[in-house]
Amino acid sequence: MTELHLWLRHEARSTERRTPIVPSDARRLLDSGVTVTVEESPQRIFPVEEYESAGCRVAPAGSWVSSPPDTVVVGLKELPDEPARLTHRHIFFGHAYKQQPGAAALLRRFAAGGGALLDLEYLVDDDGRRLAAFGFWAGYLGAALAVLQHRGRLTAPLAPTTKDALDATLRPAARDAGFTALVIGALGRSGRGARVAFATAGADPTCWDLPETRDLDRRALLDHDVMVNAVLATSPVPPFLRDQDLDDPARRLRTLCDVTCDVGSPLNVLPVYDRTTDWDAPVRRLREEPPLDLIAIDNLPSLLPKESSTDFSAALLPHLLDFGVSGPWGRCLDRFRRARRELGVTER
Ligand SMILES: NC(=O)c1ccc[n+]([C@@H]2O[C@H](COP(=O)([O-])OP(=O)(O)OC[C@H]3O[C@@H](n4cnc5c(N)ncnc54)[C@H](O)[C@@H]3O)[C@@H](O)[C@H]2O)c1
Description:
By secondary structure, the protein is α/β, with parallel strands linked by helices. Helix content is 32%, strand content 13%.
């Protein structure tokens, strides 16, 4: 059997500071006989020197294109637009199986080169549960930003930070009034993160998950000052909020953070806004009287690159150590082949 050679690539998106493999885990891979090459990257939160001193080989940014054919290229987000033919196996979040913009083009590039996408979103256990995900930190940041906005302390543009620095701004000051908070999807990864951030902010949120929304009490929902939506919707359910709820003069809700960000999808449980917000303008006012502010940022974990990378890498490591053609990676490959077939593209 060929020895595994992982190639950690530089991320094409300049604001992406996270990495799927942190230096200490790269060392664990090396200790197990895996070859690890790490591309230089000006923005990665861990300097390349840390990987080098762990024993990794170092290569220039973008040099994966000419890496040996058996190399498995590892990243997080989108590939650069070139080359047109992708010949390697790539591990990353492809966002290519739900007809997203650019999905067909990406699958065609794989088909043209004979390579394969092993999509991290589809790396699941026997029961279909995700094995490595950023949800906890998405929820943590979603709740943290909502609290800061609610207290009038959120400053834009947002920039990557550390948990310690964030927590220092979150802890309640003597002048801070108390508030009531609600987390929906509270039992999931993001929901758990939101609960921890609320606790740091001195709040004890109401926690709802599937049983509590089956027969939704919108009056009770609107009676909270701050709400974080962290559900993973898999089938359509009645919306949690409608326009008429926002217009309700008795509404207590002032700050809404939608971690789920399913805007535009038929599964969207918050069809009260039409586009996400971002780091430059994190907050949009949805109503003036009484005020209601929305935060709906779709790359929240990137704001805590070190913590989110460290947790993600720890979850991914056992599966990289066990890299093979069956089990979770086999399922990833099957999913890729199915997507390619559905698109009607065949391997060259
Ligand atoms: N904004 C971001 O940056 C960001 C980052 C990561 C994940 N996300 C999104 O956050 C969402 C949650 O991700 P996760 O990893 O926490 O998922 P998860 O599967 O760990 O948890 C989802 C939770 O939602 C609950 N749920 C599902 N439908 C519900 C309903 N109708 N009512 C109440 N609860 C319901 C589930 O029971 C579960 O507890 C996903 O949509 C994911 O795509 C966003």
